[in-house]
Amino acid sequence: MTSYYQEARSALDFLEHHRLDPSVKNYDVALRYVMDPASKLARDVEDLTSGGLRLTVNAMMMLMQRHGTEDANFAVDHRERTVARQTQKLGTLTSDAHDLTEALGRDVGEIVNQPDRSLINTDNLVTRLSAAELELAELRDEFVMLRNAINLPSQLRADLGQDELTKALNQTGAWRILEPLLKEGHSYVLIMFVIDDLASINARFGRDVGDNVLNAFAATLRQEFPKEDLIRWNGNEFLIVVTDASAMAARIHADEALTAFAARRLRLRGTGEWIGTVTASAGIVTSRGEEPEAILEIARSSALAAAEQGGNRTLG
After folding, report:
1. pLDDT for position 19
2. Nearest-CA neighbor of 314 among 281, 266, 269?
3. Which backbone phi and psi does 167 adopt, to 5 degrees?
4. pTM here?
5. Which residues lie closer than 8 Å to 166 by C-beta, 6 or more apart?
6. How far, in Å, CA of 137 to CA of 73, rounded?
7. Which residues of the chain have pLDDT under 70?
8. What pLDDT shows up at residue 17?
9. Domains plus CATH for the chain?
10. Angle of CA points 188, 298, 295, to nearest 5°
11. Cβ neighbours for 178, distance < 8 A, ≥ 6 positions apart
């Protein structure tokens, strides 16, 4: 079973380890790496990650440029073949589950219908029921893994320049904004926002409510920064890149966004129950030609420090 999706999963694990966005291009590079560890691409990856280093977005782009796109259809073809195998396997599993439950039903029926109940071997019945339960549990797990694997290609074909949940730009889309600024040497103000204690909201009300909170926050940021592209950098991290205003003006807008969000009364769908005041924090930094990764880390540190100080504030 594992062989049907192991390469695809290994490629995604590679991207997750290096904290890279699972865009189609990044996935293609990762898949080529795991499928052919002796290739020139793989040797370059090993050189770039020696000593436990993680691949940066810039390093990934360099790999794409260096190794070209001669295998552009490689990952797509591989995924299509994988899905075909997985679909066939899913049909086999369905048949296996049906046969197993049908056979178990016959066995139990024969035992129960024995004229002399004293001849029933209860130990044997328990053993057979336990074995059947184990087999069904294994089939259930395989169903789940196959379902996730079959869903994978459609996710990878999506426009991963955009976050699926909030429709903000994701990391791939963000670099389309950041790279020209870096190349042309423009200064800019970067603001990182984080929702305070989103983890506890997920724990209390479930992830669907947490997703609604993320969407509500994204809507608030769009209202306060109508001229800027909204970026969802990571799960609880949103970015705004301001290029045509001073740091002081950007800070004012950031504070206004936090105030507006804290004033929202977010309620549970269905019951209308208020989930309580939800706040966010922000870290702000001005870039003057530094590498974006360094600026991001400074902004992140400031945002997290603001959250630790009680939240609903901007630092930096």
Report:
1. 84
2. 281
3. 65, 15
4. 0.53
5. 214, 215, 218, 230, 232
6. 37
7. 1-6, 68-105, 107-160
8. 84
9. 1-156 (no CATH), 171-315 (3.30.70.270)
10. 40
11. 241, 292
